[in-house]
Amino acid sequence: MASQEQADMSVSNLSAVRVEPADLYAIDLGNLMVFDPRATISSADECLVKARDLVQALNDKLYDLPATIDKVGRIVTLPPPSTRLPREKPIPKPRPPTKWEVFAQKKGITKRKRSKLEYDEQTDEWRRRHGYKRVNDENEIPWIDAKDTDAPGEDPFEKLKVDRQSWVARKSRKKVHSSIRKQLREKGGKGAFPFLPVVEGRGASNKEREQLGNVLSKILARHDHDILDVGKAVSKYNVEEESKRAKENKKTGGKGARKFSDKNRSSKKGGLFNRKSGGSRAGGSKKPAVIKVTPLNLWGWGVSSYLKGLVQLGSPQFVVGAWQRVNAYQMTTT
Amino acid sequence: MRPLDEDETTQVLEKLHKYVGSNLKHLIERQATDGLDSKPGGFCFRLHKQRVYYVSESIVRRATNIARDKLSSLGTCIGKFTKSAKFKLTVTCLDLLAAHAKYKIWVKPSAEMSFLYGNHVLKSGLARITDNTPQYQGVVVYSMSDIPLGFGLAAKSTADCRKLDPTDIVTLHQSDIAIAFPTLTIAEGTSRLLKRPPSLIPFFSQARLF
């Protein structure tokens, strides 16, 4: 009897252990990302509902994190992200071998360490390789055997010295060339460049014209020996400022009109988290609020919004109507 | 083909400044009056195979469609970068320099041939010189009919020129148009060459895209 009861209880207990759908979502708090691998969505409405569930799950997880209370609300430190994102750029190609490397490989030349001391047979002792009292010092050659090909009156010691000097000069010239080649190689050869020339459609881009203008003014200033006319310089500066301001005003559609400048937004309706009503939750209630999702702010919030660092959790009451793109700066500014 | 970077631009403009002085501003901010586009653009410098070209923007835009190894030249070649990365002006720049030159030297007809053969200009060959030419200033050499023959360096300032012997050098020869057309000079004779109108190097002045 007792065992029968126990059996019944165990069976009923099995049904009590139910896997919450929320547990099967892949939630990456570091990236504020939630992903349901088993979702199948057939209509827009279903999409909304599903998204709401996902965001709710994420929110629940966020509230589970340990939080500190600040005057603006809860502050939570997100854990490091768990999803590994793919490489943004392709793997860097190995550096092309230098002329010497190619040659050495072809010839089979390997690096070998030279010792500091070398044995000098003439004096039967160990001498250093370079420096004071070195092996084979050219100044210490006592005599040079005369050859038939030697012209009379020619000083072979002098010849040795001159040969050495010319070799040193040739070596330094080659070094100059190789340093230029090295610079080009580091700059990225002929490919790398500070600005793209034809991006803006016209022949010369603005950056190129700017560079040209800068160089030109530098050169003209260097060669201009006139005494500085302060009045002229001041008026020139004023004219430049005026034209710059006129250009900026034209861009923003008239004087004072600021349509979508970001710096004003944060002071107005606030971000997704309306800070006004955040005060009521500043005490840090444990119960996570229900997220109201509407088509308008769905875009802004998104299912995977990418935020790093601290996130202020005030009341997650969405501003309906005016969606705002989520970005890290809005979330973290006070 | 690519634009010049800052060091290269500095070198090129410094060289041009030697001959053209403060007119360098006009040279750079010049607008292309005739061209392939309805709205004329300016001019810019482009580097292609170590040579620097002064091209109008309408041509540059079109030249980007040509493969690097197939592009022979574009606009006006004003000079080239040598193996040790120094910039040297070539004679094909003469049209440009002559149009904006500050200091000019006119050479007598008797000394034209001598200059075109590569000799320096002597006091006896000097017809006219602009006032206040400093010593070692870059100058453009003209014939008496105002045809630019080449460019060089003023060996003496204008004031010093008056005190010279007839055999003293007034202008150091750097480049002349006979370098560009050696066969023309020999085969067709200089008189024909020298009677041509000022834009003496049409071959190099216009865009060559092929």
UniProtKB/TrEMBL annotation, chain A:
InterPro entries: Ribosom_reg
Low complexity bias (residue ranges): 275-287
Keywords: Nucleus, Ribosome biogenesis
Annotated segments matching region Disordered: 241-287
UniProt cross-references to Pfam families, sorted A to Z: RRS1 (PF04939)
Subcellular location, principal: nucleus
GO biological process, one term: ribosome biogenesis
Places the protein is found: Nucleus
Compositional bias (Basic and acidic residues): 241-251
Nucleus found in the keyword field: yes
Gene Ontology CC terms: nucleus
Function: Involved in ribosomal large subunit assembly.
Similarity-based family: Belongs to the RRS1 family.
The protein, known as: Ribosome biogenesis regulatory protein
Protein species of origin: Riccia sorocarpa
Species classification: Eukaryota, Viridiplantae, Streptophyta, Embryophyta, Marchantiophyta
TrEMBL record, chain B:
Main location: nucleus
A single GO BP: ribosome biogenesis
Domain PUA: 103-178
PROSITE patterns the UniProt entry points to: PUA (PS50890)
Keyword Cell cycle: no
Functional summary from the UniProt entry: Required for proper 27S pre-rRNA processing and 60S ribosome subunit assembly.
Protein keywords: Nucleus, Ribosome biogenesis, RNA-binding
Name under which the protein is recorded: 60S ribosome subunit biogenesis protein NIP7 homolog
Superkingdom of origin: Eukaryota
Self-association state and partner proteins as the record states: Interacts with pre-ribosome complex.
SUPFAM superfamilies attached to this UniProt entry: Pre-PUA domain, PUA domain-like
UniProt GO MF annotations: RNA binding
Pfam families referenced in this protein's UniProt entry, alphabetically: pre-PUA_NIP7, UPF0113
Entry keyword NAD: no
UniProt cross-references to CDD domains, sorted A to Z: Nip7_N_euk (cd21146), PUA_Nip7-like (cd21151)
GO annotations of cellular component type: nucleolus
Family membership noted in the UniProt record: Belongs to the NIP7 family.
Subcellular compartments: Nucleus, Nucleolus
